[in-house]
Write a structure and sequence with these properties.
By secondary structure, the chain is α/β, with parallel strands linked by helices. About 45% of the residues lie in helices and about 15% in strands. β2, α3 and β3 form a beta-alpha-beta unit.
């Protein structure tokens, strides 16, 4: 659970990226997820948490995350869609490059995976984020449904997920997004 800190905007997220890049001792990738993608793309002004996935993990980054959280007064969590739903095929290739800082390449974690994880969770902000991803052309309805169908047989390994409800949520969301 996050410690109460003020929300972070794009400037703080970018400063976090720079701090981690300066501290990293090896090459790696960091994928930004959720609100951090939202503030960098611009459909939201702030985020409560900066969610990250390290893959491959740059050495020295965990120590730098702890320092950056205090220096910037932000919440940083290691969380990605594949922690909550099956990993989508091709997610790395669909992840969009943001920037390079030191030896770290930063990407937005695949927007389709982000959208599906948000649909599964179903909070009001999540559904709004999915609509914004569609409005901005970051996701398309037909592909969203196809990718859901590709992971649907694997949902049996996620007992907290109700597959019929998830499927209904995906189809509801897809109706509000361009094909």
């Amino acid at each position: 659970m996050s410690t109460a800190r003020p929300p972070a905007g794009a400037a703080k997220v970018r400063e976090l990226m720079r701090m981690l890049g300066r501290a990293a001792q090896s090459d790696g990738r960091i994928y930004l997820v959720g609100g951090s993608s939202a503030v960098l793309v611009g459909w939201r002004e702030t985020t409560v948490d900066v969610d990250l996935k390290l893959d491959p993990e740059p050495s020295g980054v965990f120590e730098a995350i702890a320092r950056a959280k205090e220096a910037l007064h932000i919440n940083v969590e290691l969380a990605a869609p594949d922690d909550f739903i099956p990993a989508l095929p091709g997610w790395r290739e669909r992840s969009r490059f943001i920037d390079r800082s030191g030896p770290i390449d930063y990407y937005h974690y695949d927007f389709y995976a982000q959208a599906l994880a948000k649909i599964e969770r179903g909070h009001r902000q999540d559904i709004s984020d999915v609509r914004e991803m569609g409005r901005l052309g970051l996701i398309r309805s037909t592909r969203l449904v196809e990718l859901f169908e590709s992971i649907e047989p694997k949902l049996v390994r996620y007992p907290a997920i109700d597959p019929p409800s998830f499927r209904d949520g995906v189809h509801r969301a897809a109706r509000g997004i361009a094909s």
